[in-house]
Amino acid sequence: MEQKSLTALISAFSRAYHALNNEVTIFNDSLARDLLTDEEFNQIAKNMSNGIGFFNPSFVGEPEQALRWVVDNQLSPSPLGRAAFAEKSLEWAVRTGTEQYLIWGAGYDTFAYRQPLWAKALQIFEVDHPATARDKQERLKSAGIVIPDNVHYIEADFTKGTWKKEMQNHNSFNSDKISCCSILGVAYYLSKESFESVISSISSIVAKGSSIIFDYPDENSYTEKAGERTKKQFMLAGVANEKMLACYSYSDIEQLLSAHEFLIYEHLEPQGITEQYFALYNEANPKNQMSAFDNTNYCLAVKQ
Asked: Which domain of life is it from (predicted)?
């Protein structure tokens, strides 16, 4: 709560790097680079390139090749894949009656500032920690990016549920209208009790037919069965003082959602994510193949 999120900045860097260095993309975030200063972008790039010995001890190559390896293998798969999944799901939701888009843990997400035509009628709410939300607004201003009239900010502490009352009292939010709620990159950093509290609170303020989109770590994430990338990500999050706290089986998620009136509509594991969202990129980039992150699943659920 006292400082902007380091993991959110690194996610923005990875989306920016991917957009700048590929003609065929998994997800094209055309504004992510504008939210980072040159100093930040270059410093993150340098740190990641210098960290190749941690990520891939056997790597041999130039610094730029090392950076590409770290970004493509460690940094980008999660933010790119889940953003592509979320925006595809949101488009489907809008075409079937959704009028509000609620983004929990918005970080430096740029959807609200590059809205496609199909999103113009939405009311968009970004829900995040005050420090990150305020920092983002300053970055938008510095970049000359105009905040659209349909974009609103809700300050939140996810462990205390302080956002709920503010959302309900906001004059642009209508609990009777169908909402789509994205909760990307959040489940990792909350206890199971706090994450369930978020789902419960969302269910209590959104209409029937509303949807939630989220990614979550599977039950092997913080065990010896986890993939090597997951083990390194867990270590990095701890160093950034953003420790990962919980993981879930499919049954855990199904039961949690059902308890709060949501049924799973779509569920993807790493292989399915790679096949659906990484295939075109991999076909165009045979020397820089990417795959969905180990031990990470995506879920779309609808309130009954």
From this structure: Bacteria
